[in-house]
Amino acid sequence: MRSSRAVCLALALTTLPVQAREPGRTRRVSLDVVRAPVEEVLRGLAEMGGLNLVLSEEVGGTVTLTLRDVPWTQAFQGVLVSQGLGMERKGNILRVAPLRVLQEEAEARARLAQARKDEGPLRTWLLPVSHARAAELLPQVQALLSPRGRVSVDARTNTLIVTDVEAPVLP
């Protein structure tokens, strides 16, 4: 079994330099390790990519790799997939954790965002309708409302009166 220093040294020595005349080209690596700690391999690959790395406490084990002249991003993804890991990237920070943990967190964020949206203040819109009867549009509009939303029709002015939470403004 190689030590973690040997893994970092192997990573550093097998990196091919990025060609200055090809600005879009990613760094390529060749790597041959046997039963190396996953944490050390990921740290070395992240360093090659010029990224910071945050590892979950659940990331562990060893990995055996033989890679020849592959983009470092593919090498990084290969290690992640082989260990059932995933990553989130924010800026120049990579966060690595088991896929199930990342999926649970994403679902929790989605539930929180939906709860915030559903609990937002109600707003009312008056939507005059031309070239159709507002009452005929009622089912289609109701299908688009949140659970708190409601719609009614002012037949005299042919206007839909919609009350619902305001949709968030997306960038």
TrEMBL record:
Residues 51-99 form the Secretin/TonB short N-terminal domain. One of its GO terms (cellular component) is outer membrane. Pfam families: Secretin_N. Keywords: Cell outer membrane, Membrane, Signal, Transport. Residues 1-20 form the signal peptide. Coiled coil: none annotated. Gene3D superfamilies: 3.30.1370.120, 3.30.1370.130. This is Type IV pilus biogenesis protein PilQ.
